[in-house]
Amino acid sequence: MLAVYLSSTCPVMVAPAMDEDMWHHPTTKNNLNLLYTHGARVLNVGNGELASGLVGEGRMAEPEEIVGELETFFRTSDQLKGQKVLVTAGPTYEAIDPVRFIGNHSSGKMGFAIAEEMANRGAEVTLISGPVSLKTKNKNVNLVSVVSAEEMYEKCAMHDDYNIAVMAAAVADYTPIKVADQKIKKNGAELSLSLKKTKDILGSLGKIKRDDQILVGFALETENETSNAEKKLKGKNADIIVLNSLNDKGAGFGADTNKVVLFFKNGNPKRIDLKLKSALAKDIVDSIIELKS
User: Where are the domains of the chain?
Assistant: First the structure.
């Protein structure tokens, strides 16, 4: 089987099957993520009776599901042909001095997965990413690397002629007013930093959004998740807000899996249960395409 995969020059789809403990092992997640980064489409596992006799996650997707995924792949490969898509991903680093910065734990995995899914459906994608270790694999994804929130704002402003924009980056809300020219020494007991707000990328795009454009934002929350997501949806003039909660196990920064709730400008919220980010990206893109139809 390995020889068949290594010699394959066509798109590859993987349907994992194993015991639940094996499925949740970090090595399994890393290997599946490696397959994904090399272009394989990884299907989510089912929950049910396993070969060991136990019941849990790890069951291979049912044959009908696999056939359905194959049909969807061939049906949607040109679904977004001719569409320009803007995606942001990863963190931003706000310099304090030449060696220190304010940042966050975002890995960029969700944004990269969405960019790849958009490209797999024929879109011309501009992916603006903060500092991450990820690579793109679809030739229709143009990766633009930035470091700071200001750089990301400027690059997004240059690519505002989009059909679809998905702002998945975890942009810093504040940045130091002054950046030290030299490394700050630990001379005193305390260090005080004066911060200013960074520019609102999602909000700025929302202010100039045309009726024929779709704008999607992300909201990572730790409390009052629903009210904060609904407030952001209205305040930023977005069409969809994707809510992440750090209270959900297996979701959020760094993980290969995620679970979200989609809030729509027009329509009821849609909950998507925990799954691989590559699989979740398909659900998010499907919801975006439904708005365009």
Answer: 2-76, 84-292
Q: Which of 104, 142, 163, 237 is catalytic?
A: 104
Contact (CB, 8 A) for 199 and 173: no
Task: Say whether 104 is catalytic.
Answer: yes
Residue whose tokens read 């679904």: 79
Low-confidence ranges of the chain (pLDDT < 70): 1, 75-76, 250-252
Residue with tokens 């997640």: 29
Nearest Cα neighbor of 251 from 277, 290, 282, 279 is 277
Start-end of H helices in the chain: 2-6, 20-23, 26-37, 63-76, 109-120, 149-158, 201-207, 225-235, 277-292
Q: In angstroms, rounded to a whole number, what is the distance separating the alpha carbons of residues 259 and 228?
A: 17
User: 């396993």: which residue's tokens?
Assistant: 50
Would you identify the CATH topology of the domain 84-292?
Rossmann fold (3.40.50)
Global pTM reads 0.79
